[in-house]
């Protein structure tokens, strides 16, 4: 027999959600500022050590900005991304309670020379 005790506060499911991310669509530079904001719905602090970012399956060192339940992850490529191609970003983060969140998106680097 499995017993489950759920009170009002325990019934809430915690999540780490991405609320904003960029760039979306087409980037105007081959070195765009890549950002995503994670928020813990339970108010638990995001663990900066848990943050992982890849661009086109290559791990990069992103920087967390802010502390607590809302953190923005920021990365600017050291070298230019390939122009006229799509680039896929995957960012993962966990809060201190172990709840994981992930955001994946693709953006296009346009021809940065035609102005």
Give an overview in words.
The protein has 115 residues and is mainly beta. Helices cover 3% and strands 46% of the residues. The protein is built from 1 helix and 9 strands. A 5-stranded mixed β-sheet has the order 2-9-8-4-5, with no helix packed on it.
Descriptive terms for the model:
5-stranded mixed sheet; 9 strands; 4-stranded antiparallel sheet
What's the number of extended β-strand segments?
9
Uncertain stretches: 2-11
Sheet with the most strands, sense and barrel status: 5 strands, mixed
Strand content: over 45%
Class inferred from helices and paired strands? mainly beta
Quick synopsis:
The strands form two sheets. This protein has a five-stranded mixed beta sheet with strand order 2-9-8-4-5, with no helix packed on it.
Topology diagram in text:
Layout: H1 8-11, E1 16-22, E2 25-27, E3 34-40, E4 52-55, E5 58-60, E6 63-65, E7 70-75, E8 85-94, E9 100-109
